[in-house]
Amino acid sequence: MTQAIRKTAPEPLAPVPFNIPQAFETTLDSGLKIILFEDKRLPLVSYRLAFLSGDIHDPADSVGMTSAMASMLTEGTLNYSSHELAEKIERLGASLSANSSDDFTVVAGSALSFYRTEVLQLIAEIVFRPTFPESELDLYRRNTIENLKFQRSQPGFLASEQTAKLIYGNHPYSRVSPSASDIEKLDREKLRAFHANALSPNNAILIAIGDLDREEFLKQVHDEFGRWERRESEAPVFGNPPQRSSRTLTIVDRPGSAQSNIVLANAAIDRRHPDYFAVLVMNQILGAGASSRVFMNLREEKGYTYGAYTRIDAKRLAGDFEATAEVRTGVTGESLKEFFYELNRIRTEKATEDELADAKNFLTGVFPIRAETQEGLTSLIVNQQLYSLPDDYLQTYRDKVNAVTLDGVLEVANKYVQPDSIAIVIVGDAEEVLPQARDYSSEVTIYDTDGALMDPVKYEKNDNEATADASGRWTVSLDFQGQSLPVTLVLEQSGETITGSLETMLGNGQIDTGRVSGSKLKANTNMDIQGQSVEFSIAGTIDGDTMSGEINAPALIPTPLTFAGAREG
Amino acid sequence: MAETFKLAPLEIEQYTLANGLRVVLNRDMAIPVVALAVYYDVGSRNEREGRTGFAHLFEHMMFQGSENVPKAGHFQHIMKAGGTMNGTTSSERTNYFETLPANQLPLGLWLESDRMRSLAVTQENLDNQREAVKEEKRLRYDNQPYGQIFDLINEMIYKNFANSHSTIGSMEHLDEASVEDVQEFFRIYYAPNNAVLVLSGAFETETAKQLVETYFGDIPSQPLPPELDVSEPQEVANTYREWEDKLAPFPAFLIGWKIPKRRSREFYALYLAGKLLYDGESSRLYQKLVKGAESVIQLFGFTDERRGPSSIFVGAIPKPEKDLSEIRNVIMREIENLANQGPTPEEMQKLQNQLINDAVRTRQSSMSRAQQIAEFTLYDGDPNLINQELEDLLAITPDHIRENVKRYLNTENRALLDVVPAGKG
After folding, report:
1. What is the ipTM of this complex?
2. Statement to judge: residues B91 and B139 lie in one domain
3. B212 and B271 share a domain?
4. Can you give the pTM of this predicted structure?
5. Whether B267 and B192 share a structural domain
């Protein structure tokens, strides 16, 4: 009897309703909007004082000002030095921070409800009475500049830097990070003046969630924030992101990179767009998670990558659609092929009823899990407020998801997935990537990791060169610290693709990816050396029956080793 | 406040099936979600020489399908039901968990029981997952700056093979593993009497018990796995190693000490000492190094909590041109100060508030409760310890901290790993 029960997935039990009650709302004369959500489940409180201005509102000559100001709020006030403030907060077992993003600046505090009044007091302290001490600002400048250097070694950052420029053009969303010279220009007087004008109540929302008492809370708000004066300012107007008319290929060269970091991007919707829910569902089907088309194709079926996804970034004023993956360098071309296959298919074929139902089930089912913790609930409420979403947004979210149709999905796929004018951004080995990717666009731009423009001709292979024959058994000598080590390459070739193995005294390895372009051979393999798996990359030039080149094993040896040898037989 | 604060106890019911599966129910009707956690008493510590990496390989294999669930089916079922899931392997245990809408409890139990009972251990699955594990090792360890430092220092700190080898294991051993080896591993360790099942969240107790019996009741028990020895020699050794890391942009160092096991008074005292040293911006080392001397880019520290001998680490990435040994001197002087003077009253107040805050926060999520309860059940045989542990931590006094820092965090018995960038540039 038990066996029969096991054969198929069981039916669910009766559904249990879950509803987020409406929060209490009021607005002060100064324009400060107050949201209060009482939740006495546990003795915790969370506060957010959120401002509808962010990094994109930096003055044109002071890029990085908003994020510097946010970071500096906790580095010294009228009543507390940076150290004293850290001590005071941490002694309560509480947390307090301020951060900026493109569109918003948020001051966040949370604590056991026993300390609810202290934490709200400290929020007021850092917002109204920061002093921007010179020594702290100096430390901030130096640390930020170090971090910027570190960032440029991260392929993900380099990809997003190029993507933002291509999608947003002159719009301030195009700037993902300030430069070192922007940071050096920050000075205390400018920061103080900026702060004096930047944070006004008519541009702010104060959200309080948890074990609070309404009357007590409102009284404290009046005491701490009652004298805050409104300040009218003109909301700046930015131009629209550029219209793209053709596909482009942008490569950031990281020589020797074992992986290509691929981003395909085009402009899409802002957060309040009426198509939002249809786009959400479409994205779920196409590439949000391990059951999605893109993931199942590039990872599960083809094994090109650890993860391939699509995402929708819907900011306050504009947004984009992106398809991303980090793939083995040798399969960059094949990965692009599969991405474009999926991006076209979602536009030309209606999704199946099952795909639609699964996507909706996930988006609606996961909703209560997101709201389980106070942090989760706070995020949901903060987002609803900051993006000025309808008052009943959280209460009607699941209904809106369920209302999306197959026709709706097809329609938004055609509007917002634009393979013919998409921006292809690849961070990887340009010499390897260019021949694999150039079929997808004739508009090619190449940068180095510092952002300097490079001449694509440098990376061209000689197309007239015939593909060399690399097949066979090659005996080569490897020059290792003055000694000559024998190495054997056993290669099979099909067109430009190479398979086979590498044999050495230390161990053997199967070729993972191998390619011949003209007379150049490139191949990668993994070998076990004393229990560690070590990646080897081979770069050789074939001349008839002789071959010479370099073998690189960065985890083992800091510099490449030269080799030379000949084909047997 | 610590004196008056009382954390409301969690509702816990514990029982054991006929086949030895330990079951714990923590009912909480606040939000209509339910978390399942299955903890198997097998971790890298159970691996023998020549067979490292098996426990972690298993974690991968468990998602490859079982008799009634197709390959990748586990993940797809959970996603379709609107849930989240994952699994992890450590030295101590392998765990599998999911959070689902409350009405999907049967689905979770079906999936977990089917793979406990009939995981598909085939050559094809084994070959597939070997490759996946290699990709993961490349991504997380080999291609990351500083990716290997924790494995390296564990080899220096622990003398017993069970404790010292890395969880990701050796590719050679995995390559050598046959399907029979892997099936045997499954039979021995993935048995109901070697596991704990915890349900936390919204359910009716009788319904839950019936479902657990239906799905898990007929899974046969197995002989218990062999006894494990994780004892360590008493050593008075100061070990040092220099490691060249091609991907590291800056030099770094890591200091580690071996300390007594979890839940001992010594462990708790040292855990708290660690918090005072490196946790948060008011911590001693943050103020001395990130602020005062402004000499480090990053400071980090943590305790590795195990059932046997455990460890505590402190490390830093200095700024370019800063003297590593001077930074280390600052760290050792601060530790000495803590060993001689002990913590201040303000520091004790901070610890108490942070401990209460942490205890309250981790109770919010059904998954976090399920995992903590599973640990107490598997390691200590007592799920009710979740209602006890805060008190045990609050009972640690300044003298306990001072004595244990003096005894354990010295220079005679520590491992020091220096990371030297070996890149081209």
Report:
1. 0.88
2. yes
3. no
4. 0.85
5. no
A322 in the same domain as A269: yes
Range of the domain at A297: 248-459
Distance CA A473, CA A496 (A): 17
Query: Cα–Cα distance between A107 and A225 in angstroms, integer?
Result: 14
How many Cβ pairs within 8 Å bridge chains A and B?
201
Contact status, residue A226 vs residue A34, Cβ threshold 8 Å: no
Out of B84, B106, B134, closest to residue A12 by CB: B106
CATH number of B410's domain:
3.30.830.10
Averaged pLDDT of chain B: 92
Distance from CA of A426 to the nearest CA of B (A): 18
- Domain membership of residue A501 (yes or no) is yes
Q: Domain holding A485: CATH number?
A: 2.40.128.120
Whether B79 and A533 lie within 8 Å, measured CB to CB: no
DSSP one-letter string for B341-403: T---HHHHHHHHHHHHHHHHHHTSSHHHHHHHHHHHHHHHS-GGGGGTHHHHHHT--HHHHHH
The answer to whether residues B259 and B168 belong to one domain is: no
Number of domains in chain A: 3
- Specify the DSSP class assigned to residue B338: H
**Cα A420 to Cα A248: distance, rounded to the nearest angstrom:** 9
3-state SS, A43-100, equals CEEEEEEEECCCHHHCCCCCCCHHHHHHHHHHHEECCCEHHHHHHHHHHCCCEEEEEE
Looking at A171-292, list the stretches that DSSP marks H as alpha helix, in order from N- to C-terminal side.
180-185, 188-198, 214-225, 276-287
Q: Is B421 on the interface with A (CB under 8 A)?
A: no
Question: Is B75 close to A369, i.e. CB distance below 8 A?
Answer: no
DSSP letter at B412?
Answer: T
Judged against a pLDDT cut of 80, whether residue A558 lies above it is answered with no
* Residue B410 belongs to a domain: yes
**What residues are paired with A230 via a beta bridge?**
none
Closest-CA distance of chain B to residue A168, Å: 31
Give the C-alpha distances (Å, rounded to integers) separating B208 from B13, B373, B393: 12, 17, 33
Boundary-marking domain end, from A459, A493, A514 = A459
Selected residue with higher pLDDT from B235 and A537: A537
- What's the pLDDT tens digit per position in B224-237? 999 899 999 877 66
Q: Is residue B8 part of a domain?
A: no
In this complex, which of A12, A531, A555 lies closest to B172 when CB atoms are compared?
Answer: A531
Q: Quick check: is A181 in a domain? A: yes
B161 and B253 together in one domain: no
Which residue range forms the structural domain that includes residue B160? Answer: 13-216
CB contact under 8 A, B365 and A373: yes
